[in-house]
Amino acid sequence: MYKLVVSDLDGTLVNSEKCVSDYTKKIVSLLREKGIEFIIATGRNYKGARHIYETLNLNSVMICNNGSTIYDQNGNLIFQRTLDSNISVEVLEIILKENCVFLACYGTETYIGEGTLDKVNSFLYSPIESPTEISKDNLHSYTFEKIVIMDKDNDKLRKLSKIFNAYNEINAFISQDDYLDIVHFETSKGQALKAIANLKNIDLKNTIAFGDAFNDYEMLKFAGKGIVMANGFNDLKTEFETMDFTNNEHGVARYLSKLFNLEK
Q1: Which of 50, 112, 131, 162 has the smallest set of CB atoms within 10 Å of its CB?
Q2: How far apart are CA 208 and CA 227, in angstroms?
Q3: What pTM was computed for the model?
Q4: How far is CA 154 from CA 42, 50, 149, 158, 174, in A?
Q5: In angstroms, how far apart are the furthest CA atoms of the chain?
Q6: Known catalytic residue at 153
């Protein structure tokens, strides 16, 4: 019997307009009425994910920054794992050398390279609000939970992924075609799911996970049932069950409705 459902946001639960459909809201509500917990697990920081959380009227923990942070139902930080500051400096120096733009997160704060706001915003659905601009001269002054490299050249991002994964202290993965995410090597959405399931005394075989990209891999692997969206990365589809619907077709909600017979 499944007791916990965890879902990625972008490319999975939300549509291309970054919104949750009314149908998805309805199904999540019906699911919770059956006593099954629904959790968000996203690469976004808390500030970027809170609106979706509130839209779904959730009352659960929330996994943010690809597992680097976990917040309780009141928005209190209950887990945090940051990147080593020296490693962050090395990473950012390579990013700057490769002429990629980046953003980094710590708590509700967002950091970008000096003079890159327009370039960073060109990759985002909505503009960043009041980011802190940092330069090569003051990189040592900051600590980050996550760094995101953005570039339209996916081959370049894959090359950088191999470079950064050679560091023992880093977990780097493609989260979208033009995004490369970097977090501490001991963190992932999957590790966060394991911790939450253990805390709630739920066997992982009684969990379901939905995702679409490589930052969802461990979460899909650890869950009792891991499901990839129809619009998900092909490499994931070879290893996990793939649903017939995309994020623009309310795929998660349709799958849950059928699995749990929510619309009698």
Answers
A1: 162
A2: 8
A3: 0.93
A4: 21, 29, 11, 6, 9
A5: 62
A6: no
